[in-house]
Amino acid sequence: xxxxxxxxxxxxxxxxxxxxxxxxxxxxxxxxxxxAPEMRANDLKIGVTPDHALESAVLIILYPYKxxxxxxxxxxxxxxxxxxxxxxxxxxxxxxxxxxxxxTAMREAEEEIGIIPSTMEVIGQLSRFYVRPSNFVIxxxxxxxxxxxxxxxxxxxxxxxxxxxxxxxISFETLVYKTITFKNNMQxxxxxxxxxxxxxxxxxxxxxxxxxxxxxxxxxxxTNTQTD
Length: 228
Known about the structure:
The chain is an alpha+beta fold.
């Protein structure tokens, strides 16, 4: 599957249709389970969120670049925490000052990768879900930027930013499995994607699983400006 942004009109049409697609029924847990480690699948299917769960939001920034559809993820620094050294979407924990979850996602993205919120248009969101290892409920939002953002990563939290040509690098055909070993020597076999020399798995891969489904629906709907 491919999609080329051949003109401004073509680009605007794609994101208009994407915005409409995000208002339709989303695959939710079915998509999440597809990229979940086996030990996490049952949790997702049951769908129980404990009362003590924390709330967070992440931002998926979509932008046309070199006539292709791109997004950006971050490789987190090493720290004492569940997602140390992993690939993540920019985002984080909700704070009392946040107006809503969308505000959380935008604020965290501005802090972590230096995006300018006024250049972004939030066009929808994907399905929320609970991540038991970190005890967070994640709310994923999608923002459109008309051109490649000028990224300024925060050195405290971010090792580097990895830009992704989505239709080229993220698909169920490029899915791989790797054995993840934790500090307590526990291991699990996790599905994910090879991105920028790193392995993207867990919650971030689950979010991309749903995103792939949505983008595929948009890209495969025939238009006069599409190139396959």
